[in-house]
Every structure is written in structure tokens, then in C-alpha cells.
Amino acid sequence: MAKRWLDNKTIIITGASSGFGRLLATSLIQKHGCLVLGIGRSAEKFAAFKEELGSFSDRLIPHCFDVGDRAAWAAFRETLVREGITPDCLINCAGIMPPFNAALDTPIETFEKTMQTNFYAALYGIEALKDLLAKSSEGAIVNIDSSAALATIVGTAPYTASKAALCHYTQCLQYELGKKRYVGLIMPGFSPTAIMRDIKLNEKEERMLRRFSTPEDKMVKKILRAILHKRKRCIPGADAKFMYHGYRLFPRTTTKAIRYVLCKSGLPMFENVFESCDNKNQGDER
Ligand SMILES: NC(=O)c1ccc[n+]([C@@H]2O[C@H](COP(=O)([O-])OP(=O)(O)OC[C@H]3O[C@@H](n4cnc5c(N)ncnc54)[C@H](OP(=O)(O)O)[C@@H]3O)[C@@H](O)[C@H]2O)c1
């Protein structure tokens, strides 16, 4: 790889116990000699991860807390100060995706929890660590956002809103910090991780999702390459690129096409979103 600025650095990764975060941590530890401070909720998952790392296991230091808890971030900062650890990069990767539902039927608590985990957690992490990051020659911040912020996907209001907020926050940060610091915005398309753990999928749904998604390892390679090249924005995955270009050129048609495909799929996971696919006016701007 051309750029090796992350080699032997201390990296904080939220959501390091599963999915993208775990694969990113594995590559950074095994291929780049990094020390990873991994944040997640599950001590069991971290124990299994450490075992999998074998002789590299001492390069992963797990910290279990809820990233949506601002006080927990302050306590984490105190631990770093006490132990004399200066992080070189913060990768905000923890995230949740609630089940598909019509926006008006989604409880406000679901919006609050999703905003807390997908948006405010990144702000809390940056708030708690910004002065420690400033002591590093890099002090980089990478926010793992989502292609959901690129287009309108009916049935995903809490997730899309949280990721849109993170997208625009990150872009403000990029322009405010200019060239002083690397701030990366990663907007992946769909990949079959455990992100849909709250959504009960049948066999057909699993098959369909796999067909239209990018395998986890391939996606993480693209994400890592973007970070190593300090790319400001990366949109990995064919579905993400379709959403980006489609929405920019034909916003209404793209939104309707996504809605049509989801609705016509007849899959049970979308049943709370659509009363009927026949109402041709649904979604039209008036
Ligand atoms: N997979 C996709 O298709 C996709 C597409 C675009 C963007 N993304 C984004 O990529 C990121 C990673 O997702 P993933 O696909 O890797 O999902 P995942 O396999 O479900 O991993 C999510 C990670 O976030 C952690 N987490 C969730 N809520 C937390 C909380 N309140 N406090 C601390 N940790 C918490 C989980 O910890 P525990 O294991 O301890 O629960 C887990 O390590 C998310 O931000 C997601 O929105 C994913």
C-alpha cells in the first residue's frame, strides 16, 4: 500500500467488536502494527476477538461502554490520561439500524436511540478526545457514515436521519479544520454484517441482501484503502455509487425507483413500510 501513515499508531475504533470495526481493527493490528483501543458493549465478543488474534492479542485493548453515554466518554478519556496514551486516530464506527418501519409509526424512542448511537456518539468521542488527538502528529478522525445519507430510502427514517446528520457534521469539520487534520467521511453501501441483527430475516431475504451487497472483507479493504490515502470522502459499494449518482442526477426518479423495488420485492421485512405498491402518487412531490 502506498501510504503507511497509520503504521504503528494508536487507533481508537468504536464498534470494534463486530463487523467493519472488527475487520478494520484486525487489519490495522496485523498488517500495520497498530495498537487498537476497541470500544463496544460486549465483553464476550471482545474475548472471542482476542482469541482469534492469537499472538497479536496484546495489540487489542477492549473498553466496554455505551458510546451514546457522554459521561462514559469522559471516563474513558481519564483512563487514557492516567495511562499516558495519546491516540493518533479516532474511527467512529459503532452503529445500529432499527427495523424498517413507516416514519409516522416509528416510536420517538427509536429515533432518540439511533441518533444517540449513530450521531451523538461520534460528537461525544470527538469532544472527549480532541485535546489528546491534538497532541498527536496526526490527530485524525474518521467517521463511518452510510450511503443511506446519499438518497431517500423509505422505511429507514431514524437511520437515514442519523447518518445524514453525521455526514453534514463531518463535512463541516473537514472544512473547518482544512489541511490541519485528516477527517475522513466513509459512506458504504450494504454489506451483510450483523447490522441487521434487530431485523428477523427469512431465507429469501438473506439471499436477496447478499446478492445486492458487497462482502464484508471486500468493503473493509476499500474503506481501509481510503483511510490510508487520506481520502476525504469514500463511497464504497455498487449500490452506494448508484444512490450517489442517481440521486444527484434524478432525485425523484431514484427515490421512487428505490421505493418501487423495496415494495415490489414483497419481502416481510418491508411489510410495515408499505400499505400498497399500487398508489402511484405515493411519494410524489405536490
Ligand atoms: N453493514 C452495512 O451494510 C453498513 C452499510 C453502511 C454503513 N454501515 C455502518 O458501519 C458501521 C458498522 O456497522 P457494521 O455493519 O459493522 O455493524 P455490526 O456488525 O452490527 O457492528 C456494530 C458495532 O457497533 C457496536 N455498537 C452498537 N451500538 C453500540 C453502543 N451503543 N455502544 C457501543 N458500541 C455499540 C457493536 O458493539 P456490540 O457488538 O458490543 O453490540 C458492534 O461492535 C455502522 O455505523 C453502520 O451504520 C454499515
Q: Class in CATH?
A: Alpha Beta
Fraction of residues in H or I helices = 40-55%
Distance between the termini: 51 Å
Level-2 CATH architecture: 3-Layer(aba) Sandwich
Q: Spans of 5+ residues with little confidence (pLDDT < 50)?
A: none
> What structural class is derived from the secondary structure elements?
alpha/beta
The main β sheet shows up as: 7 strands, parallel
Total beta strands: 7
What is the overall shape?
globular
So, the CATH homologous superfamily?
Answer: NAD(P)-binding Rossmann-like Domain
Q: Cα-atom Rg, whole angstroms?
A: 19 Å
* Mean residue pLDDT: 93
N to C succession of SSEs: EHEHEHEHEHEHHEHH
Strand content: 5-15%
Strand order of the largest sheet: 3-2-1-4-5-6-7
At CATH level 3, the topology is Rossmann fold
Query: Which distinct ligands sit in these coordinates?
Result: NADP nicotinamide-adenine-dinucleotide phosphate
Instruction: Supply the number of structural domains.
Output: 1
What is the overall number of helices? 9
Explain briefly what this protein structure is.
The chain has helices at residues 19-32, 43-53, 70-82, 108-134, 157-177, 203-211, 216-228, 238-249, 251-264, and strands at 10-14, 35-40, 60-64, 89-92, 140-144, 183-186, 233-234. With 286 residues, it is of the alpha/beta class.
Describe it for me?
The protein is an alpha/beta fold and 286 residues long. The chain has one domain: Rossmann fold, CATH 3.40.50. It is built from 9 helices and 7 strands; from the N terminus they run E-H-E-H-E-H-E-H-E-H-E-H-H-E-H-H. The protein has helices at 19-32, 43-53, 70-82, 108-134, 157-177, 203-211, 216-228, 238-249, 251-264, and strands at 10-14, 35-40, 60-64, 89-92, 140-144, 183-186, 233-234. A 7-stranded parallel β-sheet has the order 3-2-1-4-5-6-7, sandwiched between helices. Helix 4 runs parallel beside helix 5 and helix 8 (238-249) packs across helix 9. The structure holds NADP nicotinamide-adenine-dinucleotide phosphate. NADP nicotinamide-adenine-dinucleotide phosphate is lined by residues 14-15, 17-21, 39-42, 45, 66-68, 93-96, 117, 144, 146, 188, 190-191, 193-195.
